[in-house]
TrEMBL record, chain A:
Keywords, alphabetical: Glycosyltransferase, Transferase
Family to which the UniProt record says this protein belongs: Belongs to the glycosyltransferase 2 family.
EC number: 2.4.-.-
Name of the protein in question: Glycosyltransferase
Lineage: Bacteria, Pseudomonadati, Pseudomonadota, Alphaproteobacteria, Sphingomonadales
From TrEMBL, chain B:
Lineage: superkingdom: Bacteria
GO molecular function: glycosyltransferase activity
Keywords assigned by UniProt, alphabetized: Glycosyltransferase, Transferase
Identification of the protein by name: Glycosyltransferase
Top EC class of this enzyme: transferase
UniProt KW Transferase keyword: yes
Record bears the keyword RNA-binding: no
PANTHER family assigned: GLYCOSYLTRANSFERASE, GLYCOSYLTRANSFERASE 2-LIKE DOMAIN-CONTAINING PROTEIN
Enzyme Commission number, as recorded: 2.4.-.-
Domain Glycosyltransferase 2-like: 89-194
Length: 427, 404
């Protein structure tokens, strides 16, 4: 694993910028203001060269057109593991005119008003991260109509910082748990759209504008977006990004609808592919219909997956979600190896607990199948593959995942924790 | 039982395909406005017809995305090549295959010319033929005949290197014919990266008339896909790279900056020696070019059609030679390139584990043919690990001595 890493944001319409003196460079490719792809390169692979960038641009732009042009079948519907179902036909690919103009139309869109949005950030005793996050928000090209910070610390430690910034609706929720904090934010929100991000995130300037645009263009109850790494300076951050796949890295919009839910339901429904809590937004009607975040789940409780469990409920009740990678946030991954290992363990524990909760609420046995069959299979396959390739760090992360899975199994045996069919937290 | 091999131009209406009574499927080479866009094989009942609806379905699934990409690529500005156009030498090393050589020379004669090259010459290296190879060459006005009596493909390649004059030197095996846009493909690759050390291209099947030819193609053939790829001295995605540079291309269709080959000391004559060690030579030269710091470009339009082995025994021998060639190469470069010795060892470990895994998978499926191919490749690999490179060096030294 390399010593230092740099991230470049590279507009493929322009010349390649200078190569930073890093062992690893993570390039995020843009076409104007449209993010279209990413690639990690070792030092010896750089600079990329004009021919390679041209081939890359053609490939990535074709994916954008196929994923964004209604005439070519967009938006694509997600299938197993969030892989898109193909909609393109030879006929449409061969005959669509004015490709360049259509591409041009996909970029340089005017900002979209975001005054319909209540922005909710939950934080807990991380003043440095919160300050960095708050400092980045004035760069938003479209301001939210309401800005709520939910302080989940026992002592209300973020109050002074929020007072400094002004225009913030400060909410103190001393009972620990990210779901509780988010639910407090929902209760305090006074706008028809609720956008969530975390304190370890710096949103891209166009984030709220693009969230707002997605809700105007699509009749969905939830919009999620692309989560890119803010830095990859440590081994922990690189492993989270590359070995574990971070928060997904599709650059093409995907629709998660009743078809996706029906197809993946036998395997526990692959709702974790929908997005990440660090970049999600809902119409208020979603909470009216499907209730609140499950306070047994999430950071500070069982670990995580309170977001994906809510998506599960939303889909099970007939809703749909759109993943729109135009809405970009930059996430600061955990920088210390021990932090990452414990995060991985807690994520897996949270994932298993959410599967138990989903099973109990809707009686879908697919959730149990995932716990009892697919996750162990994944452990065996990843374990053998890591041994074969000598990927010891991956193996070490997997032991953390297995410990998390074992801890997650205990939720099956907690009668007081489990709920009956159709029982969840209402608004 | 063979397959029908056909070409489909996607910009024209798709016609149904009627199989002959002894054909059990078809291999479809798809083009978009002349450019290669994909290759797919479909198994069908003997003598069946592939309807245009079925063909359309296949095209939607497999070729449509590529068509969109090719159209977009055409809209993007092409990089400006250097003002100085390169000259090109085409080298064909052959031994006792006059008929196939004639077929290849003919395909070069009728291929589309390309203005990117200042001049093009063809050099045929006769590696000790006893048939009418000399006469065949003489019947093509533009081809130059060179005799290399020392048996061994890499002896032949080095003879071509000594006599060729072009800035670029393109090697073709005698069991291929070139696509009509072969020159244009090589020119495209060169224009996209004029400082590249080498270029490789697509190798499609020439025919799929026998079971062995169909099987070879079904098992992946020489296919490296329909997208341009740039190879460098390392790869973040593949930590073992450039060890195992087999992904770069195939020796039957490769070109180099001739001066670079000379600087590198040419091909290793103890690899690709013909019968005793018929492989590893291409891996070795790709590896050395990349280690010299120069990129290599894979370009699908730089395409040939390769006559695959006709019989099952020959095909099995080919897999054996792949295992042997790879391991002989690894044995050599693990020794000569100490800086990457760890990657070489890891590659050997990974390869044997991977071969065993696919062997077990074949056995579990009850696929005895695949298992026998896997065993042959493993057998070759073991032979390569156990000193074949050293034995080959001794043999080559003896050949040099007796020729001198």
């Amino acid at each position: 694993m390399s010593e230092t890493a740099a991230i470049r944001h590279l507009d493929l319409r322009r010349k390649e910028p200078p190569v930073p003196s890093a062992e690893l460079v993570y390039d995020v490719f843009w076409w104007g203001d449209l993010p279209i792809g990413a690639k990690a390169s070792a030092r010896g692979e750089l600079p990329l060269g004009v021919g390679q960038l041209r081939a890359l641009a053609a490939d990535l732009l074709a994916r954008q057109l196929a994923g964004r042009e209604p005439a070519l079948g967009a938006p694509l519907v997600a299938g197993s593991e969030g892989q898109p179902h193909r909609a393109l036909s030879l006929q449409s690919a061969a005959t669509m005119d004015h490709l360049e103009e259509r591409l041009e139309e996909l970029t340089s869109l005017p900002p979209c008003d975001a005054s319909d949005i209540a922005l909710i950030i939950c934080t807990r005793d991380r003043p440095r991260a919160l300050e960095r996050c708050l400092a980045s928000l004035p760069r938003q090209v479209s301001e939210p109509g309401q800005f709520i910070v939910v302080d989940n610390s026992a002592s209300g430690s973020a109050r002074a910082l929020c007072a400094n910034y002004g225009g913030i609706d400060y909410v103190h929720e001393p009972a620990p748990g990210l779901s509780r904090a988010r639910n407090a934010g929902i209760r305090a929100a006074r706008r028809p759209v609720l956008a969530f991000t975390d304190d370890d995130v710096e949103p891209h300037p166009a984030w709220l504008s693009e969230v707002s645009r997605a809700f105007r263009q699509h009749d969905v109850e939830c919009v999620t977006g692309l989560v890119l790494p803010a830095t990859l300076g440590t081994k922990a951050q690189r492993n989270f990004q590359f070995a574990l796949g971070a928060f997904g890295n599709s650059f093409v919009p995907l629709l998660f609808d009743e078809r996706f839910f029906a197809e993946t339901r036998p395997h526990g429904a692959h709702v974790w592919r929908i997005g990440a809590g660090a970049n999600m937004a809902f119409r208020r009607s979603a909470f009216d219909r499907a209730g609140l975040f499950d306070e047994r789940l999430g950071a500070g409780a069982s670990g995580c997956s309170e977001d994906s469990e809510f998506w599960y409920r939303l889909l099970a009740l007939g809703g749909s979600c759109l993943y729109e990678p135009r809405a970009v946030v930059l996430h600061h991954h955990r920088s210390e190896w021990q932090e990452l290992k414990s995060q991985v363990r807690v994520y897996m524990r949270g994932h298993v607990s959410a599967l138990v909760a989903q099973h109990d609420a809707f009686g879908d046995r697919g959730n149990l199948r995932r716990i009892g069959l697919q996750l162990p299979k994944y452990f065996v396959r990843t374990g053998l593959g890591s041994l074969l390739h000598g990927r010891w760090t991956r193996l070490s992360l997997m032991t953390a995942e297995i410990r998390g899975w074992l801890a997650g199994l205990t939720y099956l045996a907690r009668p007081g924790w489990r709920r009956r069919r159709g029982e969840w937290q209402k608004l | 039982m063979g397959y029908q091999l056909l070409e489909v131009e996607l910009s024209r209406p798709l016609e149904p395909v009627r199989l002959a009574p002894d054909q059990g499927g078809c291999g479809i080479i798809a083009r978009w406005q002349g450019r290669l866009a994909g290759f797919q094989m479909i198994q069908l009942p003997l003598g069946a017809t592939l309807s245009s609806a079925q063909l359309r379905d296949l095209a939607d699934r497999e070729f449509a995305a590529k068509v969109l990409e090719l159209r977009l690529e055409a809209a993007l500005p092409e990089p400006q090549p250097p003002a100085e156009r390169p000259s090109l030498s085409i080298a064909i090393c052959t031994r006792n295959r006059a008929a196939r050589l004639g077929r290849l020379l003919h395909s070069l004669q009728v291929a589309d010319p390309d203005p990117s090259f200042r001049s093009v010459e063809v050099v045929v290296v006769d590696n000790g033929s006893s048939d009418d190879t000399r006469g065949t060459v003489a019947s093509f006005a533009d081809a130059r005949y060179v005799h290399e009596p020392r048996a061994g493909l890499n002896f032949g390649r080095n003879a071509a290197l000594r006599t060729a004059t072009g800035d670029l030197l393109a090697y073709l095996d005698d069991d291929v014919v070139v696509d009509r846009k072969w020159l244009g493909g090589l020119a495209r690759a060169w224009r996209s990266r004029p400082d590249a050390g080498g270029f490789t291209g697509l190798a499609l099947p020439y025919r799929l008339s026998t079971e062995a030819q169909v099987l070879f193609e079904q098992r992946g053939g020489f296919g490296r896909g329909f997208s341009r790829i740039e190879f460098r001295s390392e790869s973040y995605a593949n930590p073992l790279f450039p060890v195992g540079a087999g992904s770069v291309g195939a020796g039957c269709n490769m070109a180099f900056d001739r001066q670079l080959l000379l600087d590198l000391g040419g091909f290793d004559e103890a690899l690709d020696t013909g019968a005793p060690l018929p492989g590893g030579g291409d891996l070795d030269i790709f590896y050395r070019v990349l280690r010299s710091g120069r990129p290599m470009i894979y370009e699908p339009d730089y395409a040939v059609y390769h006559e695959h082995r006709e019989g099952m025994a020959e095909l099995k021998r080919q897999y054996w030679s792949w295992g042997l060639g790879l391991m002989a190469f690894l044995a050599k470069s693990g020794r000569t390139d100490r800086a990457l010795a760890q990657r070489h060892r890891a590659m050997v470990r990974w390869w044997f584990a991977d071969q065993l895994r696919s062997l077990l998978r074949a056995l579990r499926r009850g696929d005895l043919t695949a298992a026998s191919f896997g065993l042959a490749e493993l057998r070759g690999g073991l032979m390569g690990v156990w000193g074949e490179y050293d034995r080959s060096q001794a043999r080559v030294a003896a050949i040099r001595a007796s020729a001198a």
